[in-house]
Design brief:
Strand order of the largest sheet: 5-4-1-2-3-16
Oligomer: single chain
CATH architecture of the largest domain: 2-Layer Sandwich
Distance between the termini: 35 Å
Radius of gyration: 20 Å
Strand content: 15-25%
Number of strands: 16
Shape: globular
CATH topology of the largest domain: D-amino Acid Aminotransferase, Chain A, domain 1
Helix content: 25-40%
Number of domains: 3
CATH class of the largest domain: Alpha Beta
């Protein structure tokens, strides 16, 4: 284990609206460290409640990674928590360079990031774990072959192969909608945040997938900073909004905990793996894996989990308290909006402290 540190400074990147994570880390630090937050938008709600907020370029800016490293060194950051899928590939490749300065990026290896970000590779990985994934293909030709063989049935889901935050996910109910929606998404992917990665395989940048009809669950699959499996927390989703869990209830479910364990041990990610799972009449299907704090984590936290405390302890070279990973079953909770006052007078240059 690492040498114990008396204090830990934590940085949350792309903080956005994750005010709850700011508070969770503040509570876990108990005054023995500070919580920093960065975002490209000075009006981001989470920036207003961090101990220190800083403005950085957007993720696709060529200076983004250098800026994150610079401010980590200047502010003696020990632990970096990434909250955005699009920056994970950059941070993963730079992980060892950060670690040489004593900065722990809670980001997995580039290989793990690639498996999770590329939804086609996600399907293959899930199957190597001995688990089921929805029937999937990358071309209209293969989709119609699947429909002809009754391997695929309408409705179907059409989404970017490299996707984030439910951007451009659509459903098609017949052949006409399938053709039109497939071409529409391909056209949309020429622009915006996903354009560059989609251009790496433009002809196979859209995924056509079996529509799953069943009960949707969210799993928090927790590994330590060395990639060793720790536990799985199960939540049944009660409502969704804008692609994110809006209401959920914790459950004790040995079958889904076993699914999480298989994924965690095989993948070897670090920190939290946010997974979407469906329980259908045909069985359990793993749909998505995101190697970061997801929008479903707060439902675990209010039920007794404390992953921020675990991450801080591991960064200090300490063992986690078992109570931090003990979740009460049957705790139902729901998200709500609130307002925060935004600080004025912020002008972005290289980076600005609020």
């Amino acid at each position: 284990m690492l040498e114990r540190k008396l204090t830990v400074n934590v940085l949350l990147t792309c903080a956005g609206r994750r005010n709850y994570l700011i508070q969770y880390f503040k509570d876990a630090l108990e005054g023995e460290g500070r919580v920093f937050a960065v975002d490209a938008d000075p009006k981001s709600p989470a920036l207003q409640e961090a101990d220190q907020a800083l403005i950085v370029p957007k993720v696709d800016d060529p200076n983004y990674l250098e800026m994150i490293f610079k401010l980590c060194c200047e502010n003696k950051i020990d632990l970096v928590i990434s909250l955005n899928d699009l920056e994970l590939p950059f941070l993963a490749r730079a992980k060892n360079g950060f670690l040489k300065e004593g900065i722990h990026l809670v980001v997995p290896s580039p290989e793990v990031v690639d498996i999770c970000f590329d939804k086609w590779k996600t399907v293959s990985f899930i199957e190597t774990c001995g688990l089921d994934a929805p029937w999937s293909c990358l071309t209209l030709e293969d989709a119609f072959k699947g429909l002809g063989k009754n391997e695929l049935r309408f409705p179907v889901v059409i989404k970017p192969r490299w996707g984030s935050a439910s951007i451009n996910i659509e459903r098609a109910n017949d052949e006409i909608e399938l053709r039109l929606t497939y071409e529409l998404i391909r056209s949309r992917l020429k622009y915006g945040l996903l354009s560059k990665i989609s251009a790496t395989d433009n002809e196979r940048s859209v995924l056509i997938q079996e529509y799953l009809n069943g009960i949707e669950y969210g799993l928090d699959v927790v590994n330590d900073l060395e990639g060793k499996y720790v536990t799985t927390i199960v939540k049944r989703k009660l409502a969704m909004r804008a692609g994110e869990t809006d209401k959920a209830v914790t459950e004790e479910n040995s079958l889904l905990q076993e699914v999480g364990e298989k994924l965690g041990r095989k993948l070897g990610h670090v920190g939290n793996l946010d997974c979407d799972v469906f329980v259908t009449k045909k069985g359990v299907y793993v749909l998505e894996m995101n190697p970061r704090f997801g929008g479903g984590y707060p439902f675990s936290h209010v039920a007794g989990a404390n992953l921020p405390a675990c991450l801080i302890a591991w960064a200090q070279g300490r063992e986690e308290n078992p109570e931090w990973l003990t979740v009460k079953s049957g705790v139902a909770s729901a998200k709500c909006d609130r307002l925060v006052i935004c600080k004025d007078g912020v002008v972005q240059t290289e980076y600005i402290k609020l």
